[in-house]
Amino acid sequence: MNKIFIAAAAVVSSADLPAARLGPRFGRLDLQSRLALLAVASLKINFGGFARDRTGICLAASAGSLTTDFNFWQGRDSVGGPSPTLFAYTLPSSAAGEIAIHFGLTGPNLCFVGDDKNLLSEAADLIRRDEADGCLCVFCEVVSAEVAKIISSPPAATACALFLQRMNLETGVAISGSLHELQEFDRDMKSRCALISRTKSAG
Amino acid sequence: MQISTHELKSKIIEALKLQDITPEQIDDDAPLFGTGLGLDSIDALELVVLLEKDYGIVIKDIEEGRPAFRSVKTLAEFIAAKRPAA
């Protein structure tokens, strides 16, 4: 019998970025990609224990890439034009790509613009359909002060991540760390991540 | 007019937002792309913008600039040769 578990969860904000050490190219990433990558790195999962092509990524960005789009647009009048690097991040799926590159993951990859309500179910479906053995779920909320005024949304710079994993209860494949069974009612990924992270910290 | 390779390295580090790398760690003759500093095609575009912003050099044909991007030393020599007179 296969069940799906949350193997790890993490929540990060822009305040965590200065201490992050994820390689010399980390600084090149836009804010959303840096937060997403840091959230996944904070899970401390050894992906070496998984088939890289069987590990998926499901990412949702609450405001798409709007903050980076805005920053890119603001650079249009500068000498030499806007930053070419920034252009690469004017796609909401860029953060998922950076995660895949950093950890060498080549499994299925889904990206949503909007809330986190479908993330867990989509990731679980990937596993149930046997397209993946595990799946990273990442939810980014990045809204700069300028963009916040335009879209009437509060400014934000956070990301949360969790790792869903199939476990065969009959063979009892051992996994280190605490496991939280994914429930049908688990739709709010952000709250779930915060709860698991708090529990882990308290423990 | 010659330019300091140290200054150029500092500008490259700043423009490409390279973390935990100092000018002293970059060899003047080391390849910028692939091995060496490990830059990629997007970095190349960022360097083209840097040349225009900081040195007033416009590269319209990337093939023209290709030999210049071999190393910090070749880039410094290219800037010195192409930089508009003040």
Topology of this protein?
The complex is a heterodimer of chains A (203) and B (86).
Chain A: E1 2-13, H1 31-41, E2 55-61, H2 66-74, H3 84-87, H4 94-103, E3 109-113, H5 119-128, E4 134-143, H6 145-151, E5 156-168, E6 180-181, H7 189-202
Parallel strand pairs in A: 2-3, 2-4
Antiparallel strand pairs in A: 1-5, 1-6, 4-5
Helix pairs in contact in A: 1-4
Chain B: H1 5-15, H2 41-55, H3 62-65, H4 72-82
Description of the molecule:
The complex is a heterodimer of chains A (203) and B (86). Chain A has 203 residues and is α/β, with parallel strands linked by helices. Helices cover 32% and strands 24% of the residues of chain A. Chain A has helices at residues 31-41, 66-74, 84-87, 94-103, 119-128, 145-151, 189-202; strands at 2-13, 55-61, 109-113, 134-143, 156-168, 180-181. Chain A has a six-stranded mixed β-sheet with strand order 3-2-4-5-1-6, with helices on both faces. In chain A, helix 1 packs across helix 4. The model of chain A is unreliable at 172-176 (pLDDT under 50). Chain B has 86 residues and is mainly alpha-helical. Chain B has one domain (5-82): Non-ribosomal Peptide Synthetase Peptidyl Carrier Protein, Chain A, CATH 1.10.1200.10. Chain B is 48% helix and 0% strand. Chain B has four helices and no strands. The mean pLDDT of chain B is 89. Classes of the chains: A alpha/beta (203), B mainly alpha (86). At the A-B interface, loops of A face helix 2 of B.
